[in-house]
Amino acid sequence: MKNWRFAFSRRWFGYLALAVVFAVVCIGLSKWQIDRTNETRSANQLVDSNYHSVPRPIGDVLPTLTSYKPSQEWTQVTLTGTYVMADQLLVRNRPLNGQPGFEVLTPLLLEDGSVFVVDRGYLPTGNHQDAPDSVPSPRSGVVTVVVRLQAGEPTLDGRTAASGEIATVHLPSVASLVGKPTYTAAYGLMVSENPAAKTRPTAMPQPVLDEGLHISYAIQWVIFAIIAFFGLGYAIRQEYRMRNADDPDEQERAEDRARRRAERPRTDAEIEDEILAGTRR
């Protein structure tokens, strides 16, 4: 046992402390990844619940024009009113499945005189111009629309848009254009309308609910923590062998290790390395 006394030196205790600190950091990062998984799972459950919720009247869900909570995203609401075609806008730079395009925002004048912005769907960029080839018109007259709520978007510095277009779904800008009391915290992705128009823009797809790779990363951080102690043990073992190279018992063990390595079948990589070394000579 006396030949292992070097491992109890200040130097190796310092290495052990570093390994412990590294392992603690790794475990902390692993826990952080698990927490992110739980947060993502909870968010996905909320989205799934809201996405398939029973549609409710907008007044029950958004009691004021500025009402909206992040937990209401994708909640289905019903609206009854008349589309205001004169104030329809196209939102630029809205890709779908990797294809650039636009989303069609059409204000809906509700029965109480307020306006709610309906996103009727996606249209691809035209074949010969930076605009859709055509924009399907909504149904005239009174319609009942089911939408899924989305939060309004901020403006983007330096982002401009042509006449009849808008850079983001910035609801206060739409409200200024409409000139009537308008819901400015949330808008809606159209699910259906009754009576329905003959054609409509492409409906926006259901969000992909993915928990990501957080669990895999959490496991990796635990493995890194374990590797730190394996590495420490390997380093101690190597120093022990170096310090006791003259010991007959250690020499016998070294010869036994060399013999086992020689008897082990060579891998393809080792054979390739040997061939390459021969060509270089």
Short structural summary:
With 281 residues, the chain is of the alpha/beta class.
Task: Explain what this protein looks like in three dimensions.
The chain is of the alpha/beta class and 281 residues long. Among the domains are: 11-52; 54-194. 40% of the residues lie in helices and 19% in strands. It has helices at 10-51, 58-61, 171-178, 214-243, 248-263, 268-280; strands spanning 56-57, 76-83, 89-91, 101-110, 115-124, 142-151, 165-166, 186-194. It has a 5-stranded mixed barrel with strand order 2-4-5-8-6. The longest helix has 42 residues, at 10-51. The model has no long low-confidence stretch (mean pLDDT 88).
Estimated helix fraction: 40-55%
Across the major sheet, the strand order is 2-4-5-8-6
Give the rounded overall mean pLDDT.
88
Number of strands: 8
Gap between N and C termini: 47 Å
- Rg over C-alpha atoms, rounded to the nearest angstrom: 33 Å
Overall morphology? elongated
Low-pLDDT residue intervals, each spanning 5 or more residues: none
Characterize the biggest β-sheet: 5 strands, mixed, barrel
